[in-house]
Amino acid sequence: MQSDLFDQPRLPGLVQAEDFVTPDEEQALIASIDACGLSPFRFQGWLGKRLTASFGWNYDFDTARFAPTEPVPAWLLPLRAKGAQFAGLGAEDLVQALLIRYDVGAGIGWHRDRPVFEHVVGISLGAPATMRFRRRRAGGFDRAATELPARSIYHLSGEMRHKWEHSIAEMTLTRWSITFRSLAAGVTRQPGAAR
What pTM value is reported for the model? Predict the structure, then answer.
């Protein structure tokens, strides 16, 4: 894996920026997330520690069903437009929004986002976190990590989106995130899926 002058691995398909929202915007977003009626993440009958809500589209891990759900709420639309601009996409391309609150002890295990999705644009709020990456190779894994400071944004596409898995270790302080996703080529949009 290539490295730059400071011996940090280059991660093709990962773009980041700090201070994407202001501290006041961060507090307003956190309050709006907490007011959304978050529910524990469900995976094949198991309840996770992180609390979530999906808009636009929902992937049900209990039934493996992917379907439209409530439209992206109006309070998220300006952030979606700004995130799409950062990623070089149209706001209408980001058809799914996932809200997550990671309370103390909550994390997310190794995974790749479901193949129905393409671009992944995430905004981090509250406590900073480390996003870890791994890619299988003969004899083990290539590994890398990046910091996700409060109020920062990241965009996963290409190699980082499709060839690497990512995870977030259990939090010691509360963190919130807003993740916008586009649909993969060939996934049919149904009317009313997102606004």
Answer: 0.86
